[in-house]
Amino acid sequence: MKERLSIQPIAPEELELVAEMNRQLQSDEGSRVMALDDAIRRLSKWLANEYSCHVYRVNGQIAGYVLYRSTDPDTEDHSDAVYIRHFYIVPEFRGHGLGKAAFALLTEEVLPSETCITLEALVANPSGRAFWKALGFQEYSIRYERKPDSKNAPQ
């Protein structure tokens, strides 16, 4: 049987599941993993403000999500730009082209045509970076960060 992929706006009862997927995304990309309650609060705050979230389903089962806002926070002058904050596919659905199909569905059914899309991928996440490059995204900048307790801080 052929898998059927769909995309719908997040339902209120899916908030905790999406927050848990966000925690899995953080783990996958090598970020600090938030407590579930903190992830739920942050996601709720974003959704109450400028972000939108859609979930992907394969034959009715949630297979991932995308969180985005209608303008890139770093390029406010581009009113036609979309900034993707999170794009996540559950591990058991990876490796068979579902991520590519999910992104295509987002651009065909949800986002306006001719939209400039920006996103970030952590340097420590080579598989994520390779995924976006395979979809035609090009590296634009490198963001630097120095934590206050860094051993590399000037003496």
Automatic annotation (TrEMBL):
A UniProt-annotated Pfam family: Acetyltransf_1
InterPro entries listed in its UniProt record: Acyl_CoA_acyltransferase, GNAT_dom
Domain of life: Bacteria
Protein name: N-acetyltransferase domain-containing protein
One term of GO molecular function: acyltransferase activity, transferring groups other than amino-acyl groups
Coiled coil location: none
N-acetyltransferase domain location: 5-154
